[in-house]
């Protein structure tokens, strides 16, 4: 009996550790009052989350195309050097 309780406790701790290791399962909601009509009348106790800028990835070809079209960079030394990379 005692061994079964110890095994259950060990399993519960292992599950909790695994859940903490993988992080939260759901993304936090930005504004709770937008999603559900029942929450619209209540005030939220948590402060609103700040929005961070979205990360945009570009490749070298995109950068070169942009530099070729811009007035300030179309004849720059940086543009010409980047053609050799």
TrEMBL record:
Alphabetical keyword list: Nucleus, Transcription, Transcription regulation
Q: Which cellular component, as a GO term, is one annotated location?
A: transcription factor TFIID complex
Q: Please, one GO biological process term?
A: transcription initiation at RNA polymerase II promoter
- Transcription initiation factor TFIID component TAF4 C-terminal domain spans which residues? 1-81
Top-rank taxon of the source lineage equals Eukaryota
The answer to keyword Transmembrane applying to this record is no
Molecular function per GO: DNA binding; RNA polymerase II general transcription initiation factor activity
Phosphoprotein listed as a keyword: no
Q: What is its main location?
A: nucleus
Question: Low complexity composition bias: which ranges?
Answer: 35-48
One Pfam family recorded for the sequence: TAF4
Tell me where it resides. Nucleus
Disordered, as annotated region: 20-53
Question: Which family would the database say this protein is a member of?
Answer: Belongs to the TAF4 family.
Know the name of this protein? Transcription initiation factor TFIID component TAF4 C-terminal domain-containing protein
The organism of origin for this protein: Apolygus lucorum
What taxonomic ancestry is recorded? Eukaryota, Metazoa, Ecdysozoa, Arthropoda, Hexapoda
